[in-house]
Amino acid sequence: QKEVEQNSGPLSVPEGAIASLNCTYSDRVSQSFFWYRQYSGKSPELIMSIYSNGDKEDGRFTAQLNKASQYVSLLIRDSQPSDSATYLCAVSRSNFGNEKLTFGTGTRLTIIP
Amino acid sequence: GAVVSQHPSRVICKSGTSVKIECRSLDFQATTMFWYRQFPKQSLMLMATSNEGSKATYEQGVEKDKFLINHASLTLSTLTVTSAHPEDSSFYICSARPNTPEQYFGPGTRLTVT
Asked: Contact, B94 vs B36, CB < 8 A?
């Protein structure tokens, strides 16, 4: 079992619709959860972080965390063509220090105009 | 968010030569920086964790004598690919963490070894 699992996609969503990206993780002691967006040929860009159960909203993005189910998701409302990218879920066992991130393989999202 | 820079953004070198890549945190101090490698259409692979003033911690399977890491200050870490070969051609990305859990990535360095 992979430590962080994501559906590789591609996930195609019509423009203006809600895109839903899912991620599960295996390490129960994980404390910090992140979503990164990576455009083709570019480095990852942090778009959301979440640390406690529930929802966290930032503009069109909502991250959802359920530690009991070891599940974290990202919702993108009013999807735009510029949201087309690969979305990486990342998990850390610690909030501080030199603890590394464990990444999923990413979900490729395509927004269809 | 915090800003991390890398230099150069792109480099082409001949097989057998060495290449140095710099990673700088521009607006914060980073006691820890991370070096990743990404091959086309593959996910990020952590190579090593760079600690200021001490030796880097390498991931399993990464040759520490080939990928030399020096974290000489709180804002600079360097990765030197020694005796580069075509199979080392890849996208090298560093990241750093200010005194928060979030990790911020540099723009990456595309290395091509001919």
From this structure: yes
Q: How far apart are CA B26 and CA B34, in angstroms?
A: 15
Residue A1 CB burial class (10 angstroms; 0-12, 13-18, ≥19): exposed
Most A CBs within 10 Å: which of B42, B44, B97, as the mutation test of the A interface? B44
CA distances from B65 to A88, B48, B81, B110 (A): 30, 12, 9, 21
Chain B residues close to A49, C-beta within 8 Å: 101-102
Q: What is the pLDDT of residues A1-33, one digit of tens each?
A: 679 999 888 999 999 999 999 999 999 999 899
Determine the average pLDDT of the residues in B4-30: 96
**Closest-CA residue in chain A for B92?**
A43
Low-confidence ranges of chain A (pLDDT < 50): none
pLDDT tens digits for range B34-87: 999 999 888 899 999 998 888 899 999 999 999 999 998 999 999 999 999 999
Three-state SS string over chain A comes to CCCEEECCCCEEEECCCCEEEEEEECCCCCCEEEEEEECCCCCCEEEEEECCCEEEEECCEEEEEECCCCEEEEEECCCCHHHCEEEEEEEECCCCCCCCCEECCCEEEEEEC
CB contact under 8 A, B102 and A46: yes
| Those residues with Cβ within 8 angstroms of residue A33's Cβ, 6 or more apart along the chain or in another chain | A23, A25, A49, A50, A51, A63, A65, A72, A89, A90, A91, A92
